[in-house]
Amino acid sequence: MQIADQAEAAARTVTDPDLRARALAAVARTVGAAGDHARAVQIADQAEAAARTVTDPDLRARALTAVADAVADTGDRPRAVQIADQAEAAARTATDPDMRDQALTAVVKTVAATGDHSRAVQIAETITDPETRAQALVAAVKAAAAAGDYPRALRIAETINYPSTQARALTTVAEAVAGTGDHPRALRIADQAEAAARTVTDPEMRAQALIVVSGTIAAAGDQARAMQIVDQAEAAARTVADPDNRLWAPVYAAGAVAAMGDHARAVQIAESITDTEIRAQALIVVSGTIAAAGNPARAVQIADTITDPEARTQALVTVAEAVGAAGDHARALQIVDQAEASARTVTDPDMRAWALAIVAEAVAATGDHPRAVQIAQSITDPKERGQALVAIAEAAGAASDQVVARRLIVAALTDVAWYRTLHALSISAPGLFAEQMSDF
């Protein structure tokens, strides 16, 4: 049976109209990405029809936003806007205030993505819960900044009343402006973000907000000031009453300091964390950052200090991915050898399956698809094995190894959801995918 036939048979078993609408919308986006826009439109029509049969207004709104996103991908912005309007109308009939606000947030994201930032803000401002409204406005900020409309993005960010959320929105704008090379302007916006962060009353949230701001300021060129803000964030974190929450701030601080280039201090911060699990998470972040900065030997040393085999595997995989991304695939494979050895010492079967899956994916990224398949097929958990095979198929397809990719997709269909394999097929063989989807 052809892959598309198997996918179609599986899709027809989806009886819930909400799930069917979302699945079809995802398929439409994948088909469009494969180049068959006409077919994507036809599948989006089916998704829209399914979404209209959803009786729950909250779920109908979410399904319609998924369809609108798919239609927007085809280039039909007017129709996407029309469907988004219908999603908004459905959301407003939801009786539960929380569900209504969440549905409207999804609508805001969709409308903002179509480019109508003013309309997105108007919808966001009708959301009753202040925190949810702030999150919706962040979506509008991100869309405006991504579109290059920095003045509008800044104006929207300035209307957010939640200090921590406003700080995050302002850093989004500042980072986008810094990306254009206008560092003085980026620093001015970062100043606003810092001011907002300092007004956050909760010390844990204030520490997190300041750390985010410090990264933006560093990216804009003021390294010394960024380090000072990290110091202040750490000081704020030490005043957090809950000891468990107090431990997470150093993780963010270590990552920020490592990104700024002070690797010794980043390691020092990470190793000062008393909780073993949280310390491991900090060391994973730091080791990956150091590897990306061009010092894989030191990164491996840091990863090897992690005693938990699962976390150590994750750290080594992160290092290998960074080394591979820099083009040194031979060195990356050597590090993956260590990661595989670590993964096989994990005693919990479920966690061992997960650890081997991320190792297989890392091997695939280096181009050694046969070895990646070998590792994936040694995984006993069907779901993890299937996810690994799909990831390898995507890597093989991206490398134009379509024979391997198709074989793996067929194998993965027995382990994972059909719509997950469709994305891999669109990468590995977009022409075949579009052709075989004609009966979907």
Provide structural commentary.
- The chain has 440 residues and is mainly alpha-helical.
- The protein has a domain at 354-440.
- It is built from 25 helices and no strands.
- Helix 16 (276-292) packs antiparallel against helix 17.
- The longest helix is centred in the middle third of the chain and has 18 residues, at 243-260.
- The protein is globular, with a radius of gyration of 24 Å.
Structural class label: mainly alpha
Number of β-strand runs: 0
Identify low-pLDDT runs.
Answer: 1-9, 415-421, 424-440
Gross geometry: globular
Distance between the termini: 14 Å
| Main beta sheet | none
Rounded Rg: 24 Å
Order of helices and strands: HHHHHHHHHHHHHHHHHHHHHHHHH
Q: Work out the strand percent.
A: under 5%
- Number of H- or I-type helical stretches: 25
What is the percent of helical residues?
Answer: over 70%
Topology:
Layout: H1 3-11, H2 17-33, H3 37-52, H4 57-73, H5 77-92, H6 97-113, H7 117-124, H8 130-146, H9 150-158, H10 163-179, H11 183-198, H12 203-219, H13 223-237, H14 243-260, H15 263-271, H16 276-292, H17 296-304, H18 309-325, H19 329-343, H20 349-366, H21 369-377, H22 382-398, H23 402-412, H24 418-428, H25 430-436
Helix pairs in contact: 2-3, 2-4, 2-24, 3-4, 4-5, 4-6, 5-6, 6-7, 6-8, 7-8, 8-9, 8-10, 9-10, 10-11, 10-12, 11-12, 12-13, 12-14, 13-14, 14-15, 14-16, 15-16, 16-17, 16-18, 17-18, 18-19, 18-20, 19-20, 20-21, 20-22, 21-22, 22-23, 22-24, 23-24, 24-25
